[in-house]
What we know:
Blueprint: H1 5-18, E1 23-25, H2 30-41, H3 50-53, E2 59-62, H4 65-70, E3 79-80, H5 83-92, H6 96-99, H7 102-114, E4 116-117, H8 130-138
Parallel strand pairs: 1-2
Antiparallel strand pairs: 3-4
Amino acid sequence: xxxxxxxxxxxxxxxxxxxxxxxxxxxxxxxxxxxxxxxxxxxxxxxxxxxxxxxxxxxxxxxxxxxxxxxxxxxxxxxxxxxxxxxxxxxxxxxxxxxxxxxxxxxxxxxxxxxxxxxxxxxxxxxxxxxxxxxxxxx
Length: 139
């Protein structure tokens, strides 16, 4: 789903009050990137209040398309992108938040070439603690 207002406000307040980095962990699909963009720059529906609801310096921790190879996520844990996913991915390539982040653009282009996506849960194929004991510490 999309980030709700309360969570967006909470992240902004945490970042501002504690001066800590905010890291995004989302599914490796076009919608995961869209979720990051809402945290980063707000939603079109609430653009009038984006200053109070955005965390413009959020970092994309993962799951990145390059992580699927880097961490050898098994093919049975990956999903083929639907035509809707592909269409949405191409649309995202035209968005400013992607154009302004060359690394993100490269990752999205990799996803579009492979036509594969994965949910965060794909990492649990290595065990329930893999995400917290291996993946996150290495990131």
